[in-house]
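notes to self, project folder thing:

trying the whole complex as one job this time. last attempt i did each chain seperately and stitching them together was a nightmare. two parts in total, labels are on each line so i dont mix them up again. if this works i'll redo the older ones the same way
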Amino acid sequence: MRIADKFAELKGKNEKALIAYVCAGDPSAEATKEIVHALVKGGADIVELGLPFSDPVADGPTIQAASTRALAAGMNPDIYFEMAASIKENVPLVCMTYYNLIYKRGTVKFAKDCAEAGITGIIVPDLPAEEADELQDSCKENGVDLIFLITPVTTGKRMEKNLEKTSGFVYIVSRLGVTGERVDVAESTKNILAGIDTEVPKAVGFGISNGKQAAEVIKAGADAFIVGSAFVNIIASGEDVNERVEKLASELKESCR
Amino acid sequence: MKKAMYGKFGGQFVPEVLMPALTELEEAYNRYKDDPKFLEELDYYMKEFAGRETPLYFARNLSKKYGIKIYLKREDLVHGGAHKLNNTLGQALLAKYMGKTRIIAETGAGQHGTATAMAAANMGFESEVYMGAKDVMRQHMNVYRMELMGCKVHSVESGSKTLKDAINEALRDWVTNVENTHYLIGSVVGPHPYPMIVRDFQSVIGKEVKEQIMEKEGRYPDSIVACAGGGSNAMGIFHPFIDDKDVKLFPVEAGGKEMKTTEKEALHSASLCVGEEGILQGAHTLILQDKYGQILESSSVSAGLDYSGVGPELAYLADIGRITPCSISDDEALEAFYELSRLEGIIPALESSHAVAYVMKMAKTRELGDLVVINLSGRGDKDLETVFKLKEEEEKEACQ
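result (full assembly):
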């Protein structure tokens, strides 16, 4: 499913989107499929499937640890695409990974593999707009959205350029730093949302872990919010994972109705 | 060619949040690099604090034994015991001009961390250094040195617990504190403009060699040999000679236990010799990686060379054939460590021992010519414990 179709569907229902992140292959490819099912059952509208990289510089300790577990359990891009292809949920799947894995596979092949596996968006946290032309061309050819990021220090021309380049949605990084749960959503998020002028849906991520925070960013003007580490922590605990993941997804979705 | 590129190598593959900081750094560097006041101040620090210029020493006994003229560029005599201070003084001064109040750095052997702590203490910065837990263990004297100078040292427990992981952690700090913090990268690696800035500040080595060798020999050397992990001492001594095509340039990488790469790890750190193109820590360069692009853990007896990547400009110079990458094993480096100590009364760093070892190995092949300069990038005091431990193990094995 294309991301734009999902947002159109939600708009019709006057709903905002919950985007859930999990690291593929943590603790196994099979488990990830079940977790994705639980997320969607709970109310996730879009699922970000992390493709783990050995050196995830934009991630905090929670997702670093998940990446290490997934790699140790044997996850690799071949298995990743096979697994994604076998997921039959009615939501867009988005691949989040680091650029070397894409470069090594070849940008053309990577975008094609995404399209064939039913992945309709790609987020690359270490690929700024300046370096993204090659991948963007491949994505366009294959009908895959390449999603760019806006941070609290992305201003002026950079902001314009990133908004112009992004498709599917724009990923708004709520604060300076790496991924991971935080007590409050930074004031800067509200400032960015207020200052942004775009038709593309605005999704806020980095640090959101509960319904209260989700409600705040929705109130501030976001079309979607991204929750990762809170789900990954449940998965890491290994206890009643599917039930608890579904429950958290459902609570988060409820908080922004 | 894009300004950030060396041929197809280089670039700025970093999180969006760092892009404005890289632009700010590049603009500041371009503003101050020819500014008379900045240069005068840097010159003062180089002379009075770092102890430059360093001698170009004719290694009489080594030359006699190996049958060619060998000079040592004595960067081991720079304050702190390695070439690293050339760069940290330059960047710290730049950070001061930029109005930053805090400096962070990564370190492998602890030499760059120590040099950062020195520059930071002297110029009044708050400083924090990230160091792989494995390196903290094998180089703990350097940890004490940094702490003595008021620097906070973070032991990094992730990944291979060496330099690569220290850089990851420093980058994570920087994305969080980018507004008041300068990330003082210690080698010619990372996103543009770092490879250029570090090279320029280290080029003082090669500039001095040019004048000194003309004075002593009336000509340029046939070869220059320098060890290369990330490659800052190599780029520093090579760069002023790049256009002097008759001077052969040899970066010596760590061959580790053997030049073997498995699916899980490399038993060496020789990215220039056998690495493949990829993206690591901000740059398109040559890296040690598996078939999917996961970064492999590297290995070397010397912490300062133990890195899975290499500076993009070195990758470019190797690609166009201007430099000749080569490697030296742990054992060969140790032999050179003993040899130089005994013959010249100079204890080299294990890193620099790789360069010495290459000259010892190649002297009789005439490949290097008659007149060779080795960049003796650091002194070996920091390595005594490592060397003694290895010796003990060897003796134990011999008894069994």
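what i see at first glance: Chain A touches chain B through 42 residues (CB under 8 Å).
need to look closer tmrw
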